[in-house]
Every structure is written in C-alpha cells, then in structure tokens.
Specification:
It contains eight helices and no strands. By secondary structure, it is mainly α.
Amino acid sequence: MRKHIRKYLPDHQAIRDNRWLAPFGDTLLHPRLWHLNRHSAAGAVAAGMFCGLIPGPFQMLGAAICAVLFRVNLPLALFTTLYTNPLTIVPLYVVAFTLGKLVLGGGGEFVMPPDYGPEGLWSWIQALIEWMFSLGKPLLVGLILLASLLAVAGYFVMRLLWRFYLVRAWRQRRRRTPA
C-alpha cells in the first residue's frame, strides 16, 4: 500500500527547495512526518478528518500542526482534509448542528450559510463568521463531536484497509512462491 500512496506524495527536496517552507525546514523534514506505515497513515487520516471541519482556509494549517505534534504523515494529513469542499461542507455542518442539538437538547433552526457575493473575499469571511456565531452552541458542540467521530472512524478504517491490503499481499506472495 505504501508504494501506491507514495506516488502522490512530494519528496524532501521539494520541501527543502520551497521558499515559503524554508523557515520551517528542520521541523517539516523530520523523518516521521514523511514515513509511511500503518500507524502514521492511520494517525494522518485521523488528523485530517478532525481538522477538515475547521472553518475556512485553516483546515490544512490545523492538519499540519497536528501532524507535527503527533508525528504522523504530513502529506496524507493535508490530503485528507480535502473531504470538505464547497459541495460537502454544508451537509456536514447540518449534521454537526443536528448532532449538537441532539446532545444539548434543543436549540434553534439551521440557517443556510451566506453566499459569496460581489463584495469580495474578506466580507464573505466576515459574513461566514457571523453566520457561525448565530448558530451558537449546537454548531460548536456538534462540530467537535462530528470531527472526533470522523477522526476515530478514519483511524480505524485506515488501519482496517491497511490490514486488508497486507493480508491480500501475503496471500498473493504465498501463491507465487512454489511450496
């Protein structure tokens, strides 16, 4: 499985040569951030799933910080945050709001997020923050719970997939080798 995932990951030299990442070179080039095994992959998926629900453009920053703190695979953690996108973020927030309402026992109604208008990015981000604050506690609690559930599920699914792949590879290897 490592060979299949490694095709899509950048190498150390690409990070070292990037002028934006050069100040963080020592931290970002730690070997455990680039090592790919079942533990680092499962941890990276969990970090990416958790940080994927962070609002706005801070998802990858959160995933990178988690990857550095927990020493899991950095590129995979960053890639995993992409499960949230303009098509999936609203349904995920509705689920989070509903989960928060369920846990807290009540709350208001869900209101759709503001559309990106001609005013520009900064005013849209401000409107998005106001929208999130208007939803209050149910959304906050629901986001934390949903992110935690997705992280735990992602961790165990990745471990299970890795195990399935290894068992399949062992069986194929055993069939190829003459007894």
